[in-house]
Write a structure and sequence with these properties.
Elements lengths: L1 E5 L6 H10 L3 E6 L16 E4 L2 H6 L3 H6 L5 E4 L5 H11 L5 E5 L24 H18 L5 E6 L1 E3 L14 H8 L3 E5 L5 E2 L1 E3 H13 L8 E4 L5 E2 H11 L5 E5 L1 H7 L2 H11 L8 H7 L7 H14 L17
Parallel strand pairs: 1-2, 1-4, 2-3, 4-5, 5-6, 6-11, 7-10, 8-13
Antiparallel strand pairs: 9-12
Length: 328
């Protein structure tokens, strides 16, 4: 099949595009710039690469037609963030392609009321990103239910992979958190550290998208959570990370007021955004309909990412002592 991947050189596309090529598909990668994928693979030599500024072309009303004119059997949209953009793409592809796969987010759910969160059971989302992702998923479900374009939305957790910084045990991107745990220094946390974070390796997300192409009819009109098999608590995550460096996590619980007073606003806000949701998503539906089985645990995925950052000199840490153990 001819498959167009929008956002093909990003986190998920880095792994998805080579998977699709190996499976025998003709792949077109559409990206905003000329950046390389996060990790190299020989399969990219067989990929048609196209530059497109989606935001600008959406404003001009030409992006959806441009994608349709590529003649795809399947479109995989990894970088759609607004209902308006999703609507335009659906209308442009309706009758012109066989399947649209959309990348959503578990932030389509609000704060956890019960866990794991099963599709359709989460609380109402908040914040523009989560609200729009939820509305897009509902739009796509209705499109397929009405007999229009065949669609499926996949909703990853916190995406992890080599080449970029993962969400750390405080739920933010502060590199100092890794250094604190690596050296066994006290790490101040808001609350008791029982909040949940649910990561997923980018290649596991890619696995799910590849399976959704193969099993189109089984997942038509569906929305599926795509995460690792289990979430981690702040405290448990910190303990694992410290253990990579032969340390034990020394955590100091405090109030949110104290945490905000002692933490740069950017990091404090990101921590709150993650921990207030405290997500743990069920992947039973993806397992049942797709045969999805994540190869990485949350912490194995993060360890691979941290090792990569250390090796590239992007994170000033000693080399983690722990061996990378995955189920692959």
């Amino acid at each position: 099949m001819r498959i167009v991947v929008i956002g093909g050189t990003g986190h998920i596309g880095t792994f998805l595009v080579p998977r699709l090529v190996r499976a025998g598909h003709e792949v077109v990668s559409v990206s905003r710039g000329d950046r390389s994928p996060y990790t190299d693979a020989p399969e990219w030599d067989q990929v048609e690469r196209i530059r497109a500024d989606r935001e600008a072309e959406d404003r001009d009303g030409v992006f959806a037609r441009r994608i349709a004119d590529l003649g795809p059997d399947v479109v995989i949209d990894l970088v759609c963030f607004t209902v308006a953009s999703a609507t335009a793409l659906v209308e442009g592809l309706r009758g012109n392609t066989g399947q649209l796969l959309h990348c959503g987010s578990i932030w389509r759910y609000g704060p956890s009321a019960s866990v794991p969160i099963v599709e359709g059971s989460g609380t109402a989302p908040f914040g523009d990103y989560g609200v729009q992702k939820d509305q897009i998923a509902r739009l796509l479900q209705q499109e397929t239910a009405d007999g229009g374009l065949v669609t499926t939305s996949l909703h990853p957790g916190h995406i992890v992979g080599p080449g970029w910084a993962p969400i750390n045990p405080l739920g933010n991107l502060d590199p100092g958190v890794w250094r604190t745990l690596a050296h066994g220094s006290p790490l101040r946390i808001p609350g008791l550290g029982a909040e949940l974070l649910h990561h997923v390796h980018a290649d596991d997300v890619a696995q799910a998208f590849e399976l959704a192409v193969v099993k189109r009819d089984r997942v038509a009109g569906e929305d599926l959570n795509v995460t690792s098999a289990a979430a981690v608590t702040v405290r448990g995550y910190a303990d694992v990370v410290a253990g990579w460096f032969g340390r034990s996590a020394e955590l100091e619980s405090g109030t949110w007021e104290r945490f905000r007073a002692e933490t740069p606003t950017e990091h404090a806000d990101t921590t709150w955004e993650h921990l207030v949701r405290s997500h743990c998503a069920s992947i039973d539906k993806a397992r049942s309909l797709l045969g999805y089985e994540p190869a990485y645990t949350s912490t194995d995925a993060v360890l691979e990412s941290v090792r990569s950052l250390v090796a590239r000199g992007e994170l000033d840490l000693p080399e983690p002592r722990a061996a990378l153990q995955t189920s692959r």
